[in-house]
Inverse folding.
């Protein structure tokens, strides 16, 4: 399982989970919508925690920043010298 969620994506998912849970606990949303919302909250929090979204994986999407190639080169050079 390769990480495919960036930090901004994780923060947005957590913020949405907090917003939906606030609407649920203040009883702004209907009970049937509340059940669906709780499921959505669970999915958002789990995907944020693991930094992996199965839907992103299926479509080949990644919001995670890639490392700079210079950084990779220097890290490889250090490991080669040891």
């Amino acid at each position: 399982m390769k990480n495919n969620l960036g930090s901004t994506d994780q923060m947005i998912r957590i913020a949405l989970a907090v917003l939906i849970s606030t609407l649920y606990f203040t009883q702004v949303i209907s009970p049937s919508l509340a059940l669906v919302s709780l499921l959505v909250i669970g999915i958002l929090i789990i995907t944020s925690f693991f930094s992996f979204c199965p839907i992103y994986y299926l479509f080949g999407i990644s919001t995670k920043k890639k490392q700079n190639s210079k950084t990779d080169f220097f890290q490889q050079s250090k490991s080669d010298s040891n």
In short: The chain is about 70% helix and 0% strand. Residues 7-74 form one domain.
